[in-house]
Structure formats: C-alpha cells, structure tokens
Prior knowledge:
The chain is an alpha/beta fold. It contains 13 helices and five strands. It is 54% helix and 9% strand. The protein has a five-stranded parallel sheet, sandwiched between helices.
Amino acid sequence: MTLIMQDQSIEQRIKLIYDQLSPTQQKLAACILNHQGDIATYSATELAKLANVSKSAVTRLLQRLGYKDFTEVKKQVRAARRWGAPIAEKQPENRPLSTLFQDYVTCDQSNIRRTLESINSQDYQTAVRWISRAEKVYIIGYRNNHALGLHLRQQLTQCRTGVQLLPLPGQTLGEEVAGFSKDDIVIIMGVRRRPSWLKNLMISLRKKGQRLIYITDHADVNPHEISDLHFSCVVRGVSAFDSYASVMNLISMLASSVYQDSYDSANARIQTIEDTYQALNELDMAALNNGALIDDFSDNE
Length: 301
C-alpha cells in the first residue's frame, strides 16, 4: 500500500487508480462503489457473484487497493458509518412510501428515547443552572453543528440575554475566546462530523478553568475527559444521513428548563420581546393567532 492510500476510503482508492485497472477490475470497482452502504454485509464470494467476476479477481483488486483482505474493507466501511459518513445500504426499488415513513418515525422515536435514557439527571439539572445563571453563554459549533447551535441560541435568547453563537461569519475564535470569563458558560456543539481540532480547543478552555457543556453523538469516545458535563445524542439515521431529532429534542428540553429555572425574569423578557415584535411589525401575527387556534383545537380533540 502506498502512503497516499493508507488513510483513504475505498472510494478514494478506487478513483485514484481507476484508469489503470483492467476492464474486469473496473467492472468490479464500479460494483463496489454502487454498493458501499451494504458492502459490509457481503462475503468476498457474494461480491464476486454480484459483480459477475471471479473470486480471485476480487482478491487481486483488493490487494491492488492496499487491503490485506475483504475483512479489512468491511471494517473500514463499518468505521466510516460509525463516524457518520453519508453511506447506507441500498434500498429496494419501488419501496412503499408508507414503509419508508414508518421506518423514519420508528428510528427517530428510538433515537430520542435512547438519548433521554442516557442522560444523568444530576448533570442535566447542573447544566440548566449553569446556563440560567451564567454571566454570558457562548455556543460554539462548526459545520452542521453551527445550525444546531443557532437553534439553541435562538431558544435560549427568548429566556435570557447574553447568548452568543460562535464563530461569527468570517471571524476566528481567538478574539472571542480571549474575552471569556469564569462566570461564563461555553456550550460546544460536537455532533459528528466535527472538526478534528475541536477537542484540542476544549482541552485548552478547560485548562483555563472554563466550564464546558458538550453536546455530542453516541459514537464519541470518552467525552467526559474533555468537558465538565456532556450529553450524548443518538443520531444514526435510517439511510445515508444522520437524524438530528434527538439533538433538537434535547435543545428544546434545555431551553424549556432554563425558562422554568428563571421563570419570572424569563417571562418579563418574553413579554418585552413580544411587545417589540408588535411595535416593529416583524411577525405575521395573523398567522400566529391562527396557529394558536389550531393548537387549541388539537388540545380539545
């Protein structure tokens, strides 16, 4: 195996040498690329049959790609799925839409239940107190975590002031981190697939005495070693992409609990915000009133 190939996925390895492969090997390589999601469920013999090539052709191609055997390929694919790579088993054609919907409902319900069951009650209550009573709350998130962090910030800012999402567009973290105090709370959104250097940032912040709340995924290893409090969300989806239903549920819970913990000041702030909405005519109040009627109807059913 070349050093270039060593840390690459099977797709990257194939693309690197595809033009150098024989027609039979190209046929097999194309078959592998088309079945990346479920390749871990096949044996070498089954893969050969699927591609209509000999088993020895499978062995030769895998060796050329730098693998010892087919078992090594399957381990790499399983590891990629655990990390959140968007690959999944190929689904049957003409699958009923009702079946697909039910699979998603069942998966999300399971993810939410397993996430909630894993939460330590004392840690959760501590997190709520920290967020409610901190001088400022800084939320840090990259890639998909930035969107999740934005939603958390939007919910928390209804209840309290001083909630900021980082990094700001076009900015680095250094300027902001330098202004953190020990009276502040930092919430790190670290659901897979997070930047590789994120944990180094967390270690650095903890060394400075910063209190950290870490929201991560179920596959993260030893999150307690780099944070004061952590909540691991089950995010495995039905198909190629992760589901964030459990993360959004946790965000809703945290915001609601912070609201309850600071009930009087939160209510006063919410009223001020509502008055400002109306004064600035920022929201479609007719639609909001209609939504309230719908909620009332649902409650009375």
